[in-house]
Write a structure and sequence with these properties.
Helices cover 25% and strands 31% of the residues. It has seven helices and 15 strands. The radius of gyration is 20 Å and the shape is globular.
Length: 318
């Protein structure tokens, strides 16, 4: 309580322009695991004009194209639409559009070069996702790194995301993009590694090379790991606890087999070891508890943090 009163005193006596939710959460050492966005299909559209806080609605795209993109998201389970850009404002040449499949057992990136946004009407995402063998000419054999930089959604994403983007772009060039909001500005700077759907937060400039190198090898760096987006958040937390327990960090080491609610915000999540079929059962709790923290700069929103607690891990042979 004293801690909360102290923070509220600072909050009430500080210019809101000088408060940053990401800095406060990092200073408080809030865990980042179990916070990745939940999606296994991503629609990524290059849009070089200024972004609003609600990128699709506030864009200059035609009503027809806005409705088309929204229908894709509405009709595709576990999907998200993000706007992307390189950084420099340019409207010359082709526009990039990606459909990313980031499922646990299948990861693919399809790239399309558009003459204009109306060209989107010629694309059928459902057909592409269900029949990838028919679109091999569009499969990209390199990953995508998306750094959230949308300062109109939350100022932390611009303040912390833009420097990280510039650092990553210097070393990794064509695979790195700025992207619109995907959730978790209090963990800025934050980025996604696709198609695997690995999400990281509070990433220091000095750590980005180590994290990207691990991603490219199919491994996980636990220190800044928010989770894998194909999993629900409670499964992301269980995945974190399991890997910390066993020390096995390759993406292919485990396969999710079951998730069961035990009531009272408690869960049991099971993973199978792909090497020897050992079944690991992770029991954990997940609920918003503790003293409220600044969760958003835009709305100056205070909320208790989501807290995951490992209740136990045991293994058995299948």
């Amino acid at each position: 309580m004293h801690h909360l009163l102290g923070f509220l005193t600072i909050y009430m006596n500080t210019d809101p322009r000088k408060l940053f939710c990401a800095a406060i959460n990092q200073k408080e050492l809030r865990p980042v695991f179990g916070s990745a966005p939940e999606a296994n299909i991503w629609f990524l559209l290059e849009y070089n004009n200024p972004w609003g806080s609600k990128v699709l609605i506030q864009s200059s795209l035609s009503a027809e194209i806005k409705a088309l993109l929204q229908s894709w998201v509405d009709n595709t389970p576990q999907s998200k639409l993000l706007f992307i850009k390189r950084g420099q404002k340019q409207n010359i040449g082709k526009l990039s559009f990606f459909i990313v499949v980031g499922q646990a057992d299948e990861q693919l990136v399809f790239q399309f070069q558009l003459d204009n946004y109306e060209s989107l009407t010629q694309i059928d995402p459902t057909k592409i996702i269900l029949n990838p063998e028919q679109f091999t000419d569009h499969i990209l054999d390199s990953p995508l790194v998306l750094v959230c930089t949308n300062g109109k959604r939350d100022k932390c994403c611009a303040k912390y995301g833009l420097p990280l983007f510039k650092t990553m772009q210097h070393y990794y060039e064509d695979i790195v993009w700025q992207c619109s909001h995907f959730g978790g500005h209090k963990f800025a700077p934050t980025f996604l590694y696709l198609p695997e759907g690995l999400c990281y937060g509070h990433v220091a400039m000095s750590d980005c090379d180590t994290i990207i190198d691990a991603c490219m090898k199919g491994n996980i760096e636990l220190a800044n790991y928010r989770g894998q987006s194909c999993y629900r958040k409670i499964e992301q937390a269980a995945d974190y606890f399991l890997r910390k327990y066993t020390g096995k960090l390759n993406l292919n080491d485990y396969r999710l087999t079951a998730t069961e609610s035990l009531g009272d915000n408690r869960w049991e999540v099971k993973f199978a070891d792909t090497a020897d079929a050992t079944i690991y059962s992770i029991k954990l709790s997940g609920e918003k508890t503790g003293e409220p923290v600044l969760a958003s700069c835009t709305k100056m929103k205070m909320a208790p943090p989501m807290t995951y607690v490992k209740l136990g891990i045991h293994s058995s042979q299948k």
